[in-house]
């Protein structure tokens, strides 16, 4: 039988060769015509007749001009960008074929070679003329519920063992890209995952490959791909109903064990909707503080302390634009709309090399893309706030617009209270966000985001405070080749605050402050091989700070106008990193960032005596700098190195070391973040902050990824931390360097986390033991605090426990609980008093020598989802929650006043009684 087959193939080859000698030459032209019309024109000029299936030729346009050219060469050119091949017989018939081709002969060793297609991956050398690719027609995959697709076409003159398949994975319902989706080739030890834009690239053996996809909240799929050459295949995947079952903050599969970067957490908004939070507001940043290593100075405090770092050491990004004050309503709510947010990736250990300018963490928050298929939205109604987000296609399947808005109507609550001071108070906020995403073609995509938030409040009858955030960002993603992609990002952010004072005295005023920054960044990704994945790029950021101005309010005001001169600084950086897979067990992520900062004029810089404290008595001279003249420069290399080693397939150990520079500082004498905190750029007298951190951790998954366990320790050293002198005047101070001091800091801790991802009972338990210290030492007493010894920082809380649990009674009904315990933060207490000139004065202890009482709180909620019918206008979700069920009077601060000659201590609390809430959400 073998001999008969070979003889037949050789006979066909001889006949074809004879036919080729008689192929006539013709002259013909086509200009953007249907390929079917082109074939009919060839038939009219020759004796050839074409045979094909009509479906193969749909929507194919061709162009070309040919003079005295063989028909075979014309067809080669016409079909070069299609999956069509052709075969010419001796009797002038031309058969069109899709993907494959007809062979006249077989390679000499075709029946004797052992592996036509090797299973151990695409690492073989190119081999010419492997012979025909056979597909088992009886095992099409359809019978097993798999879709079968053919990619590319055969070319006998350039056959390789492996080709590249790439494409994009999107949500079939929303059209949004699906990031971090696992793509696995069954039986071949090959796989990859999608990037943030849903794109993937995979090198596959030629022939049949069964590709399986797996992702959180996405139905698993299996597809048989018959690969003939390089090609593109896009997956449209359906959501899994089981996504509603999840509450757990988690990444995809065993991401926590596999990745090399330490201290990274992925939070998805949909997975936190059952966590009971104050006043029923779903809040992605408040959910973050239930995780180890992230905390706040107190209930209602704005800003976040990450691994013993200050609040100004966190880079909070919304679609690559910076948000300086991420809080609303005295810190009770975050300024990020939960319905418009897709996810947040928080880096608190080894920060990727592309990020810089902050020491402790990066909150990389991404707004979800609008729905390109249909109009949709989500809304909520609560006792204090209402929220709505709408998504609409602009060009179907290509572009969409998302618009969201959130506002409070809290004034009626304040006016209904018995407290006269609060009864006359006002507090309101709103935020709006808009995002436009447009897929131009397979290689280009643009995204634009605009955001604005504003808060206004008055606790006293004579003062109105307001602050606002604004940002715009534009991102262009471009695919240069199968292995190289890039993004060009431009953003502008602005933060303002103001105080309007209108009292009974003649000192009414209007005060304003503004901080603005503009950044442009280019970042590239190059998939060199399975072992090396490079990220590299550059960025530049211009800071413009208006430290404040004050003007009299009204004609009778005795306030003198004052404007503090503007500050400017330029921060630039180049960065590169390589994710290097040394072997199956060891993965190293090594990065280097070099940052450079220049303080710019126009400015007047004060020069002080070199060996003396900075005060008016040691001022030597004032040096003037022209506009954009360089005042001082700082900079240096920043290493970002981490490694992961598998102790077992589901058990890894990770380690990292990194350092960073920060060129902008906050000026505050408050324990917690205040809307009136100002920012100060490094200059001739104030050096940039610098930090070094090392971490080591163990990560274990068990029960088929049902449980995740991690234990990570860290040590952080900081220099040039900016602090304040006793009695410092920080606002509207032209010589601010005389009111502040710079010192050292250190922080260390251990973080423990166990999570249960599935089952009726799920949630997580986190425990952190951490310490944070500051050292302010100087030869001069006025610049020395606590005798120059290390003392606890304002946010030093050794013990922090968080328990989040959700129990599902049915698919629609569930109950949730949230328990928090924290050591009380440090405070400074008066320890004595003395009389002077018939007045009583307080003598205070060393700074932060005492602590306020420990904090603990229990929240409960009952959650009810609407029915799960697919065909209905909207899916609803009710949440009945009680915040602070135990009615614990947790102190927010402790302060002292003198009454009738006696010093009395008082404590203030934010929520000292249980706070019930009913919130209604619906999604359509």
UniProtKB/TrEMBL annotation:
Lineage of producing organism: Bacteria, Pseudomonadati, Bacteroidota, Flavobacteriia, Flavobacteriales
PROSITE patterns, sorted: TONB_DEPENDENT_REC_3 (PS52016)
Location in or out of the cell: Cell outer membrane
Domain TonB-dependent receptor plug: 280-357
Organism: Flagellimonas algicola
InterPro entries: Beta-barrel_TonB_sf (IPR036942), CarboxyPept-like_regulatory (IPR008969), Plug_dom (IPR012910), Plug_dom_sf (IPR037066), TonB-dep_rcpt-like (IPR039426)
Signal peptide: 1-19
Topology term for the membrane: Multi-pass membrane protein
Protein name: TonB-dependent receptor
Family: Belongs to the TonB-dependent receptor family.
Keyword Transport: yes
Keyword terms: Cell outer membrane, Membrane, Receptor, Signal, Transmembrane, Transmembrane beta strand, Transport
Pfam families: CarbopepD_reg_2 (PF13715), Plug (PF07715)
